[in-house]
């Protein structure tokens, strides 16, 4: 029964499952494969983080729209859309300033 010895580990024979000795190219190939797996995982994490940020942004936008509609309903015909939009712009610019600090 032959055993597989992974490159990079000290072994008296340093042989693979087929009996040939490992070379530097094998170790580099093994490290390259690990690098590719790590890059793929990193990209998947980044993409899922981007999706999460996009969904969060959409949810926040919907929440603001709901608040605006609630204010319109509560105003019962006495709602000033221009004033409310200006108020929202001010709140948005304040939040933006806080994020930049």
UniProtKB/TrEMBL annotation:
UniProt region (Disordered), positions on chain: 1-28
Name by which UniProt lists this protein: (rape) hypothetical protein
């Amino acid at each position: 029964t032959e055993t597989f010895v992974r490159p990079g580990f000290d072994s008296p024979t340093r042989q693979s499952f087929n009996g040939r000795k490992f070379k530097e190219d094998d170790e580099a190939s093994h490290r390259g494969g690990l690098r590719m797996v790590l890059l793929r995982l990193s990209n998947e994490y980044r993409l899922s983080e981007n999706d999460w940020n996009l969904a969060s942004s959409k949810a926040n936008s919907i929440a603001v729209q709901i608040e605006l509609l609630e204010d319109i309903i509560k105003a019962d015909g006495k709602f000033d859309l221009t004033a409310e939009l200006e108020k929202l712009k001010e709140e948005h610019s304040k939040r933006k300033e806080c994020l930049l600090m």
